[in-house]
Specification:
heterodimer, A: alpha/beta, Rossmann fold, eight-stranded mixed beta sheet, B: alpha/beta, Helicase, Ruva Protein, domain 3, 5 domains, five-stranded parallel beta sheet, 10 strands
Chain lengths: 199, 649
């Protein structure tokens, strides 16, 4: 999918929320959905199991309207976190312009975070994408949990953020850090677009 | 050119507060001891915070403390303008010299140096000179030196090398003080609390504050009823922050619109990203407009929805501008007035510019060149003129460096003009050389014609592009003020650029009449070398060559006889020789030593008469250092044989 279509003057930006199961990807989307005016958002598609776990993926289209003469649309996706849905994850990753990695800040989830991050890298590689070229932001979710249960953003940075990408502590349930993360990934994606345009 | 200092802008009228205390202290120090404390002093601040006031205050204080100080205040734009005007008038060096003698140079708004590379170089040179001479420079800008775009690294380091100090926005107390002082100055009185109320709202700069005060004063004057604090608030629509907790409560009630904020951010980012081509075109327009070029072509691009290749268009525009520059530079060499045409500033009219340049090129005559009839090879060298010849050769080897100017002095007819032309011919051989070699009379005549035809710029340009200027009979400028003025400027230009100047004169420059001191001292400043009367060796060579030219068979006795005849110049020697040749032709006998003796010693009374002051060519010449020899500007002489025929008639 091309990010910018100069003929139709459209910008379509696909952002995938990636991360281990139960880290809060869907929660992020729900919070955003709740903040976008009705006129601006499409129907949020959520295919969930009975226990509210994402079965396939969540999809939230947002119409940002005309920006600099371009019809600008964001498509926010989440992937199913569970290990056994890897084929779906790979499918969703296809054509992504940017990835938000939602990590679970709980100390006991550190391995899952690492595993998922490696999985992201492997899946991108399968799609012939070098993770270093993909705009990426990290979100350390659930920072509202008691301190003794979670790792601090600094520690999580040490453990997960090898590339020094932008990272944000968040509490997606209450919305803290959600838009900051979205803003960050949007900027990274658009900045890349600007570099492309300047060539 | 220089703006005079505004008497209102002194330290006494400058309200000092926390935000500007450092700047004021530094400024005072500089005013008290220019050149020794902070040099340069660089003051930067936003608009309307008092940079100009402080700058002028420095000037005023410095002048008050030492009235003989040469203080100059001007904005960068004025400086640039003055410089361009000076260059156009051929006074570039005078301009530089003038600024180099300024004791305290105050330049406002140097942020406009952005992209003005030639001005940066000029300012760099000036500041180096001023600092080296211990003279003070104070500069102001709306940003720090580092933040001035495209500023030469050397200028940045120079500007930053003294003291860089900023003026912040005035704090509340300062604002009150400013309002009080200004209302006092205007004789306006306000009720207690009014000025404080006004000062309580924030102002980006002092000018805004003054605007508000003006409204208060005007209101009070019209209404004739004193304004109170509440009235002032209403008048100015001031929302005073400390008026209650409403604002805070309100902000809590309305939850922040995260999406709207996000949208704004995205809009900005997209604006930067997608419309980068627009930004680039606008940037290019600003740049070229700033340099005085028409940018309509780029503007048309902006009007399009999606131009096909904006970057290529920009590049093409830049190429066209570059070409215009080349044309303009070329044309200005020939005719600065023509270079000022608007066609050289509009890339859309490049074709017209090319045509204009072609026209100028066609009409541009090179300065008069040395006469090809007087080469070095024909100059007779002997021990008497060896020194002059050696000097000439050295000048040919290193024009402009060794002896500049070089002045040949000597009586008429000793070969000064020949040597001058020979030297000019040799100089002209060098690659890229444009040698102007002419008689001073022709130089003056040309100048008069140019003045008459309002073509002075063209005339000046014509000589300015010469790499060497050789003037015969320089004493003829005596009493001609305008010519001396123009020559003086050319003189300085040539010396600055190490271009050779050569002159001839009948006597030492200091003895010449009617020549300004500044010119005669410059003439003496190089090397003055005398061409004495020809010695026997020279005379022999001259006679031999002249006889050869007349196809007279080589006759050593004849040559010796003629070479031994007393002759104070080469020219009189040639005169003797021609008499002999003429007599031989008349009597139809071969030229011989005997005939020569008969003609020159035992000739008829009529012939004897003619030996005094007359030449066979019939042109009047004084053999005693005459100065009006018209012969010198008649280069294409008739061949000697033709002249003989003329004589016989």
């Amino acid at each position: 999918m091309s990010l910018v279509n100069f003929t139709t003057r459209e910008i379509t930006c696909k952002i995938v929320y990636y991360g281990p199961g139960r880290s809060g990807k869907t929660t992020n989307l729900h919070y955003i959905y709740g903040r976008v005016p009705e006129s601006r958002r499409g129907r949020m598609v959520s295919l969930a199991t009975q226990t509210d776990r994402t079965l396939f993926f969540d999809f939230l289209p947002i119409d940002l309207g005309q920006i600099s003469g371009f019809t600008t649309r964001f498509q926010l996706y989440t992937v199913p976190g569970q290990v056994y849905y890897n084929a779906t994850r790979r499918l969703v990753l296809q054509g992504a312009d940017g990835v938000v990695f939602v990590a679970d800040s709980q100390a006991r989830q550190l391995d899952e975070n690492l595993e998922s991050l490696q999985n992201l890298q492997a899946n991108l590689l399968d799609l012939s994408i070098d993770i270093r070229t993909m705009p990426l932001s990290l979100q350390y979710n659930k920072q509202d949990l008691p301190r003794e249960l979670i790792l601090q953003p600094v520690e999580l940075d040490d453990a997960l953020n090898f590339r020094g990408v932008p990272s944000f502590p968040a509490d997606a349930l209450h919305g803290n850090g959600v838009f900051e993360t979205l803003k960050s990934i949007t900027e990274l994606v658009l900045r890349r677009l600007a570099q492309g345009a300047a060539v | 050119m220089t703006t005079s200092l505004n008497p209102k802008f002194t330290f006494d009228t400058f309200v000092v507060g926390a935000a500007n205390r450092l700047a004021v202290t530094a400024a005072r120090t500089v005013a008290e001891s220019p050149g020794s404390a902070y040099n340069p002093l660089f003051i930067y601040s936003g608009s309307g915070l008092g940079k100009t006031h402080l700058l002028m205050a420095i000037g005023a204080a410095a002048k008050r403390l030492a009235s003989d100080l040469n203080v100059e205040y001007l904005t960068l734009d004025e400086y640039v303008e003055a410089f361009h005007a000076a260059i156009a008038a051929g006074q570039g060096d005078a301009f530089r010299r003038r600024f180099q003698t300024v004791d305290v140079l105050l330049i406002d708004d140097v942020q406009f140096l952005t992209n003005r590379l030639e001005m940066q170089a000029e300012l760099l040179r000036l500041s180096e000179a001023l600092q080296a001479a211990g003279r003070q420079i104070v500069l102001t800008s709306d940003r720090t030196p580092v933040d001035i775009e495209n500023l030469d690294e050397r200028l940045i380091s120079r500007f930053s090398g003294g003291l860089v100090v900023d003026i912040g926005a005035p704090d509340y107390e300062t604002r009150v003080a400013i309002l009080r002082r200004k209302s006092e100055e205007r004789g306006a009185e306000f009720q207690p609390g009014v000025l404080e109320t006004v000062a309580a709202s924030s102002f980006a700069n002092v000018r805004e504050l003054m605007g508000v005060l003006n409204r208060l004063v005007a209101y009070q004057a019209v209404n004739e009823s004193p304004l109170n604090a509440e009235g002032a608030k209403q008048l100015l629509g001031i929302e005073v922050r400390a008026s209650g907790g409403h604002a805070a409560v309100a902000s809590e009630r309305t939850s922040p619109d995260e999406f709207a904020a996000f949208l704004t951010d995205v809009t900005t980012t997209v604006g930067k990203a997608v419309e980068a081509w627009r930004a680039r075109i606008t940037e290019a327009m600003l740049r070229w407009e700033g340099e005085g070029y028409r940018t309509r072509r780029l503007e048309l691009l902006l009007e399009q929805e999606t131009p096909i290749a904006p970057d290529e268009e920009i590049a093409a525009f830049a190429r066209d501008v570059e070409r215009l520059r080349v044309l303009e530079a070329e044309v200005s060499q020939f005719d600065p007035q023509a270079a000022g045409q608007s066609v050289f500033r509009d890339p859309e009219r490049l074709a017209e510019a090319e045509e204009a340049a072609t026209r100028v090129r066609a009409g541009a005559a090179p300065p008069p060149a040395p006469s090809a009839a007087l080469p070095f090879s024909l100059f007779a060298v002997g021990s008497s003129n060896q020194l002059a010849v050696n000097v000439a050769r050295e000048v040919i080897e290193e024009p402009g460096r060794r002896y500049n100017p070089l002045v040949f002095i000597g009586k008429s007819g000793v070969g000064k003009s020949h040597l001058l032309n020979a030297l000019g011919l040799e100089l002209a051989r060098q690659p890229g050389a444009v040698v102007a070699c002419l008689s001073t009379q022709a130089f003056i005549d040309e100048l008069i014609t140019a003045l008459d035809g309002n073509r002075m710029e063209w005339w000046r340009a014509r000589y300015r592009r010469a790499t060497a200027l050789l003037l015969d009979d320089i004493h003829l400028i005596g009493g001609k003020d305008r010519t001396q003025e123009e020559l003086f400027n050319l003189f300085n230009l040539f010396q600055d650029l190490e271009r050779q100047l050569v002159f001839t004169a009948p006597a030492h420059p200091k003895t010449l009449q009617g020549i300004e001191q500044r010119i005669s001292s410059r003439l003496e400043g190089g090397l003055v070398v005398e061409l004495p009367e020809p010695d026997r060796e020279v005379r022999r060579v001259v006679v031999q060559r002249a006889l050869g030219a007349q196809e007279v068979p080589d006759d050593p006795a004849l040559i010796d006889y003629l070479a031994d005849r007393p002759a104070d110049s080469v020219r009189s020697l040639i005169g003797l020789l021609q008499r002999v040749v003429g007599a031989a032709a008349a009597q139809d006998v071969p030229v011989s030593a005997g005939l020569a003796r008969e003609v020159l010693e035992g000739g008829t009374a009529a012939e004897r008469r003619r030996t005094v002051g007359f030449r066979t060519s019939g042109i009047v010449v004084s053999s005693a250092g005459g100065v009006r020899s018209r012969e010198k500007i008649v280069w294409d002489w008739a061949a000697p044989a033709d002249r003989l025929i003329e004589e016989l008639r």
